[in-house]
Amino acid sequence: MIQLSYKPYTLLKKHVFRIAGGARTSTPAVLVRLRFEGAEGFGEASMPPLYGESIASATGFLSQVDLSVFKDPLRTEDILGYIDDIAPGNPAVKAAVDIALHDLVGKLLGMPVHRYFGLSERSLPTSKTIGIDRPDIIRERVREASGFRYLKIKLGGDNDRGIIEAVRRETDKPLYIDANQGWKDRGEALEKILWLREEGAVFIEQPMPKTAFSDMEWLAPQSPLPLVGDEGIQRIPDVMTAKNFYHGINIKLMKSTGLREAFIMAMTARKAGLRVMLGCMSETSCAIAAASQLGALADWTDLDGNLGITNDPFDGHLLRDGLITQNKRPGIGLKTPEWEKIKADEQKTS
Question: CA 295, CA 278: separation in Å to the nearest integer?
Fold first, then answer.
């Protein structure tokens, strides 16, 4: 029998994290463990308040999960279909179960999850995210990220030019730009994109609100840089219409309900001629290790969420010179999770 247990957790950020939609110093999370015949799989739900999930909603969802009817964890389609049908929404906590299940299956089969999906091993050049802040703090964050090949810069506020000027005083590295739905006028958005092309931007992530369909449909063919949907891309149905508004999609496990759907989304996008970005929230090394298993499908990688927290209970892939190097451990590649140190309030279901 598959046994599920879970533990509420709070991710503590090293620095105040600011984007166009607000600021925070922590992120609520729930850590999940699945056990089967002596093997363990680990997962997590990271839930920035902006997306509507919480520790209360996640633990309420998990309290409804009954895996006792599943005698074989290799029945991943049946198990994850059951999880998805428990209640609508709740993508992050569904992702936690999905990640833990794939970690468990990989360990039972003695192989990394990327091999389970038929993908090759690959080193991933991840960007380092710089949030909205004062110019002096931005320059300090850029210096701290000197080992990375790409920087992801948050824009969409009222000081976009000042932020880029501060970045360019420190580095000429290529930039991933994330406007976080912050540009409201399509003409102004195009002007900023033209300017950012000259500043060394590689692409623009979610330049306008996710529901600004007519504006994005106008902007996409005009843009000299690829436009990547983030908030506008959640699950598989969004990929079907993405080509009308974007040139690429940002897949995050916390939006997609986990690895199973993320894999399908990436394959669907590539067949449609869309580029693929792997992104993240503030997360532990558990979710980052899971997302990196799909690295062979990515054109761009932004998997640095574990680097911005102070209390990561997991040890995942090696990061050196801005490159995530996948290890050869089975499952998602975690090493010695410190579950026992956070076990006091662990809750269990069958």
Answer: 7
